[in-house]
């Protein structure tokens, strides 16, 4: 949602799975996987093993019926998936105007009696990539047997009318910037550099740039429910930002909610500054948890007490701020990319050893490993190409979803609050308003609590040590939804399902596959 970096010209690199306002949020299950496209082949598909319900299109507004009643053709694509395209309006207020095609893919279940729509987060992450790369590993055998897993690239993302700004060389150049927003000159330069990026987005994207937002995506989800899922009610699993999609759908289409699992919850009532502050605190806590683990083991490059070790990391950050670090591939490593690379392994405690190795090299003056982590966060391949447009979609969605503070005095005040709340990371989460001050379109969403009136229970998952979607957000979302149950996982890292807890996985599987009511207040 905003960047945690001193250079607003570098909107937080889009990760493969989940990302939120103020920080790189990468994951559902592990450190970023490099993702590529899924191109439908010509020819008929095998059809859906779950029969469409004849009432799936009932209730559609008359002006949108042509979208709800369209017929799609499945065709085989990579990794044993089937792919299709679904047509939706660019602007739902003008259904007879421009249209785009949403890319959709499904992994068929062995004995599927229904379809489960999944979203990995972002905004800017690909649901097709999630199904393709993690469908058989993250989701249990039980769930894959009961459901066809359906992923889509939301509007503006990768295969679905992607937001397009800079080419690879341009994105590399932006990532090399080393600006200091704490000075008036540095802040002015940041605004100027970001204006260049925004102008490129407007020139290269087209009309979808004005409509790459959560509310429009949620309306797309209801079209997918009818056309792709063929179900009167939508079954859905959303992770991280995907929970904001889910909660918004539940508010807008309460009577069409089937079985919903919202893992790594975002509180839709929070504004940009509140989200950023929560994440800054969350990553500070995650850093301390990592440090405690590191110094308890042999081979940790950090020494002394927890306070001493955190101080060594803060000194390292300060040194990189003053002088970008050298790397083996010839690129410099400025503080923006250093922080993005450092943050990435904090999404999953199983990745902490990778961070330890990168820190050890950095303390010796070699930023190569940290740069590789930053490249992973940015979806940059070793050959210098970017495998997604996640950075640009991330920026587009957040500029339309959240009114932001771009007044210099206001941003300076927020920067001080962030530094106090998060002495290590706070300053790098500040000045997010630079990203959107010159955005050519006004924000279209007003943060507000979820308002759900449906009869089907919604399952919310929160992880106590989640840095990207702090646990209190899950508590708040469960309260706002009303007819919901909160499952708490005592653990470190972002999201809960598919990360190794049998207790969590069995509870989710029972809810989705068996239709068993979730136990509110359950702890794993």
Explain what the structure shows:
The chain is an alpha/beta fold and 524 residues long. It has a single domain, classed as 3-Layer(aba) Sandwich (Rossmann fold), CATH 3.40.50.1820. The protein is 38% helix and 12% strand. The chain contains 16 helices and ten strands. It has helices at residues 65-68, 127-134, 141-146, 168-175, 184-205, 214-229, 241-252, 272-295, 306-322, 335-343, 352-363, 368-377, 390-401, 408-421, 471-481, 502-513, and strands at 75-77, 81-89, 99-107, 114-119, 147-152, 234-239, 257-263, 458-465, 484-492, 522-523. A ten-stranded mixed beta sheet has the order 1-2-3-5-4-6-7-8-9-10, sandwiched between helices. Strand 1 (75-77) and strand 2 (81-89) form a beta hairpin. The two termini are 29 Å apart.
How are the elements arranged and paired?
Layout: H1 65-68, E1 75-77, E2 81-89, E3 99-107, E4 114-119, H2 127-134, H3 141-146, E5 147-152, H4 168-175, H5 184-205, H6 214-229, E6 234-239, H7 241-252, E7 257-263, H8 272-295, H9 306-322, H10 335-343, H11 352-363, H12 368-377, H13 390-401, H14 408-421, E8 458-465, H15 471-481, E9 484-492, H16 502-513, E10 522-523
Parallel strand pairs: 4-5, 4-6, 6-7, 7-8, 8-9, 9-10
Antiparallel strand pairs: 1-2, 2-3, 3-5
Give a nutshell description of this structure.
The chain is built from 16 helices and ten strands. The chain is of the alpha/beta class and 524 residues long.
Structural class: alpha/beta
Q: What is the general shape?
A: globular
How are the strands of the biggest sheet laid out side by side? Answer: 1-2-3-5-4-6-7-8-9-10
CATH superfamily: Alpha/Beta hydrolase fold, catalytic domain
CATH top level label: Alpha Beta
Helix content: 25-40%
Number of strands: 10
Overall pLDDT score: 90
Indicate the CATH topology: Rossmann fold
CATH architecture: 3-Layer(aba) Sandwich
Radius of gyration: 22 Å
In the residues, how many domains can be counted? Answer: 1
**Quaternary structure type:** single chain
Q: Which series of helices and strands comes N to C?
A: HEEEEHHEHHHEHEHHHHHHHEHEHE
Number of helices: 16
| Contiguous uncertain segments of 5+ residues | 1-49
Distance between the termini: 29 Å
Largest sheet, strands/sense/barrel: 10 strands, mixed
Q: What share of residues are in beta strands?
A: 5-15%
